[in-house]
Design brief:
Layout: H1 16-22, H2 35-44, H3 67-71, H4 75-92, H5 94-107, H6 112-161, H7 164-169, H8 172-179, H9 181-214, H10 216-264, H11 266-271, H12 275-327, H13 333-374, E1 396-406, E2 409-419, E3 424-429, H14 435-442, E4 450-455, E5 458-459, H15 465-469, E6 472-475, E7 484-485, H16 486-490, H17 499-508, H18 512-515, E8 525-526, H19 535-548, E9 553-557, H20 565-579, E10 583-587, H21 591-594, E11 599-604, E12 607-612, H22 614-620, H23 623-635
Parallel strand pairs: 3-10, 3-11, 6-9, 9-10
Antiparallel strand pairs: 1-2, 1-4, 4-5, 7-8, 11-12
Helix pairs in contact: 4-6, 4-9, 5-6, 5-13, 6-9, 8-9, 8-10, 9-10, 9-13, 10-12, 10-13, 12-13, 17-19, 19-20, 22-23
Length: 643
């Protein structure tokens, strides 16, 4: 069996599950022993039509993303849901009115027929309320899920359009928290909190009107006792809880970020004996999350009992004053009963809103975090009316290009460079000299701070991003593989490729020599990040993935720097087929790779300081010659006989 790299990989020895476990990472697929059960579950899953999504690389233009922008596309459905809410609330409030009528005109008047009629009507109202409640929950439940579906798609799409620079400054765990915990908090707000908040708000409003109808003086007394302390308590609670729940969202993001980092780096953590120390650090982060939650819990513990005490005291005063009014003949006993029932109904929503306000604040804090992502503008944007790039020859030019990742720290400085069509062009230099930055500008992961980069005379910033990258191939130093089969990873950039094209791409880079010996061939399952593969195997798959798109320009960013000599020899063979007839830019860490290029540029402190073929640069006896002399001394080659 032909194997590459030092670890054997997924194609022999342990199973994929065992390989992932050995790597210290969670298993990304379905274990073999559970596959049959998983298939049975999938059969019962509902079918969904393919989403009709038109993806645009441009960002949204709104300044702030709020609940209204979330609801606006489905405002008609939201209006129907609100109407059902009002009907449900109205039928629920008929109970005390019917009770008052039954007492005053049935019991007190000793009219059994009227009393029976009221009871039958009461039962009918209960049935109607149950029916409307069922319809409302079905309707609003579906509406809430549709809104969250829209939000998840919008958020994921925005993740896709944001620039590479944004991802280098954000922790992956924090981004995960936006799609998980923050969306879940918003789910509670929309599906439960927002709906119930409307119900309770409508209830309080309607009950207040009814109280004034029954007894304006008692209603004024009640509001005078209740409103001042409630307003003061609510203003205080809003200020404290808003601060507290914002801290909760930040702390859960920190928690997920630390968890994600520890899971990804578990092998390094184990090798460097950092498990205990990292556990202590994670405990401190968890303590911070606990403190944030306790802060909000203490605020709720003060606000809830305080408002409840105000309500109980007010009910006692209303019962006392109302009783005096009944004794004086100013109020009927049935009206007082209905008034007291409505007072209970008045305070029950207030108590509910106290609890719902917690949900509201959590949802609002989560929405603010999500809004901060959705309103972030990508640094690399497609112009309105951008030109679709035609088939290219592959002439690349840097015209007085400067670039900095942060203000005042230029990585490239006034670079002028031309790479001819079909030329294999290598970039060499010390770490941090700017070699990889050149590659990122060619692929338009970044835009120059000044100057311009062109392909066949066309400024990259004038071209459609999709049409540009569809003619470029990129093989990074550490290729990323996704959970799936070898074939699925090869066709990642060309999903409509035929089996024949996949087989040809694998053969072109030498991957077929490995897959032919596998029982499942190209359908062999690999796992997330390719952890069960050797470095050489991952690189061959990446080369095949680049080849299948038939790019006119290919960029290899130190694609062999992490490989051993045997693996590198296999990769070099694959590269010969991949580079043939294409413009190739090699970011070379090893001079053995650079020597095969037609021309070599030496980058030093952001400038192109030397340019020429291998032999020309040796004769120049400058920086490249020094690098080659050092390399020769380590490899045992004779510098004087270099050719």
């Amino acid at each position: 069996m032909v194997m590459m790299g030092g670890g054997g990989g997924a194609f022999m020895g342990p199973t994929a599950t065992q390989s992932s476990a050995t790597a210290g990472l969670p298993f990304a697929g379905v274990p073999t022993e559970m596959q049959e059960g998983a298939d049975k579950i999938l059969v019962k899953e509902p079918e969904h039509a393919a989403p009709n999504i038109i993806f645009s690389p441009n960002s949204m233009k709104q300044q702030k993303y709020g609940l209204w922008l979330l609801i606006r596309p489905r405002w008609v459905a939201a209006f129907v849901g609100l109407f059902l809410l009002i009907l449900e609330t109205g039928t629920a409030l008929l109970g005390p009115v019917l009770t008052q009528q039954g007492i005053d005109n049935g019991v007190i008047a000793k009219d059994k027929n009227f009393l029976n009629t009221v009871v039958y009507l009461f039962l009918a109202v209960i049935g109607l309320n149950i029916l409307i409640s069922f319809l409302r929950q079905r309707w609003n439940g579906r509406l809430g899920e549709d809104l969250l579906y829209d939000l998840r798609i919008k958020l994921f799409s925005h993740f896709q359009r944001l620039g590479i620079d944004w991802y280098t400054s954000e922790k992956s765990g924090v981004l995960l928290s936006r799609m998980t915990s923050d969306v879940e908090a918003l789910t509670l707000l929309i599906n439960e909190g927002f709906v119930n908040l409307v119900i309770q708000g409508v209830t309080v409003g309607v009950v207040t009107v009814i109280l004034f109808i029954y007894s304006p003086s008692l209603a004024l007394l009640l509001l005078g006792l209740v409103l001042p302390p409630l307003i003061v308590l609510t203003i205080w609670f809003r200020s404290v809880s808003q601060k507290g729940y914002a801290a909760v969202r930040d702390r859960i993001a920190d928690l997920l970020a630390d968890l994600s980092e520890n899971l990804s780096g578990i092998r390094v953590i184990s090798a460097l004996n950092r498990r205990r120390r990292n556990n202590q650090a994670h405990q401190q982060i968890t303590n911070n999350y606990l403190d944030a939650n306790l802060f909000t819990a203490r605020a709720g513990a003060i606000y809830g009992p305080a408002t409840e005490a105000v309500g109980i005291a007010s009910q006692a005063v209303v019962l006392l004053v109302g009783g005096w009014m009944v004794l004086d003949g100013e109020l009927k006993i049935g009206e007082l009963t209905a008034f007291v029932l409505f007072v209970t109904t008045f305070f029950a929503p207030i108590q509910q809103m106290v609890q719902l306000y917690n949900t509201y604040q959590q949802g609002q804090s989560a929405l603010q975090k999500i809004s901060s992502v959705l309103t972030t503008q990508p640094t690399v944007q497609q112009k309105v009316g951008a030109t679709q790039m035609p088939p290219i020859e592959g002439r690349i030019a840097f015209e007085d290009v400067s670039f900095s990742y942060s203000s005042g720290n230029e990585v490239l400085k006034n670079v002028n460079l031309v790479i001819e069509p079909g030329e294999t062009f290598a970039l060499v230099g010390a770490t941090g000299a700017g070699k990889s930055t050149v590659a990122k500008l060619i692929t338009r992961f970044y835009d120059p701070s000044s100057g311009r980069v062109t392909i066949d005379g066309m400024d990259l910033q004038d071209l459609e991003i999709y049409s540009l990258r569809s003619q470029l191939g990129v093989v990074p130093q550490e290729p990323f593989l996704f959970h799936g089969t070898i074939k699925e990873n090869i066709i990642f950039a060309a999903p409509h490729a035929t089996d024949e094209e996949v087989t040809q791409a694998a053969a072109q880079v030498g991957l077929d020599k490995i897959t032919e010996q596998l029982p499942a061939g190209l359908d062999t399952l690999i796992h997330e990040r390719g952890v069960s593969l050797s470095a050489g195997e991952r690189q061959l798959i990446a080369l095949a993935r680049a080849f299948i798109t038939r790019p006119r320009v290919i960029v290899l960013d130190e694609a062999t720097s992490s490989l051993d000599l045997k693996s590198e020899s296999h990769i070099e063979t694959g590269l010969d087929g991949l580079l043939e007839g294409r413009t190739a830019i090699l970011i070379a860490h090893r001079l053995a790779t650079a020597m095969k290029a037609d021309r070599i540029a030496v980058i030093h402190e952001g400038h192109v300081v030397e340019l020429g073929s291998h032999l020309q640069l040796i004769e120049l006896d400058g920086r490249y010659a020094d690098m080659y002399r050092t390399w020769s001394s380590h490899t045992g080659n004779d510098f004087d006989t270099a050719d």
